[in-house]
Amino acid sequence: MKNLLLFIISIPLISFSQVNCDTVYVEPEYGEYTHTRTRGYWFRANSSFTISAVRAADGDPTTHPRGATATNQSIEIIQFTSLNLFSDTIPLGYNDIIAGLTNPHTSLFHAQNVPLGWVSCNVDIIQDRYYAILGAKNAPLGTSIFNNGGTDMYNATLSSGSGITKLLLNGDSTVFWRAAIQESLADGPGSQGQFFHDGPHSQARIHTLICSGSTDINEITTDKELVKIIDQLGRETKGRTNSPLFYIYNDGTSEKRIIIN
Q1: Fewer CB within a 10 Å sphere, N or C end of the chain?
Q2: Using CA atoms, how far apart are residues 80 and 169, in angstroms rounded to an integer?
Q3: Is 220 helix (H, G, I), strand (E, B) or coil?
Q4: Contact 196, 42 (CB under 8 A)
């Protein structure tokens, strides 16, 4: 029986024409949460669409000089897989996580310590499913002890302060909430089940490019080498069939592959 290879490829740098695309910028910066933890936002999709690229927001050079001058970024997109699709609900919160409960998820895209700028991802969003986008700028890994070796995440937060906040995603007014994980995504993909709901405000600012039809994206490839292969639990493996695996490359990008035998 022939093997069927399904794959999603992430490429660190792109240039593009926005003729058929909508660039969604999260609100101007209010503050910066600097920590070896990562923040972002989660939402329930009101329609189906494709996120073609993502980009960490810039920080204010006056109030947050280290974050503003950081040259790299680490971003992950996940789908929560256990939430009720027939009624509105929310992921578990921080207190539930520290009590030992989990929010099962599938990682759809992860860019680790790549140069700042638009990163191609091409993630399909399905109506009524729950997603989270987390990430921020970081210094190159190993560059300075003042940035915790590059693992500090400069999570720039939005300016609305409090209350219910909405984004216009694919033309739909969509409520989005703060999402979090107590890990630095500059170290690698988030641990299974550890992303959580973190309240209605101070969402971290990750910009998205939502495209439909022909996007005219010109991919700029670079030579890269495979570093390791890991499974959904983060365990290193040599590869197997009928199970999703993540191929991690030396340029910080990763590929999700499923070989169906």
Answers
A1: N
A2: 18
A3: strand
A4: no
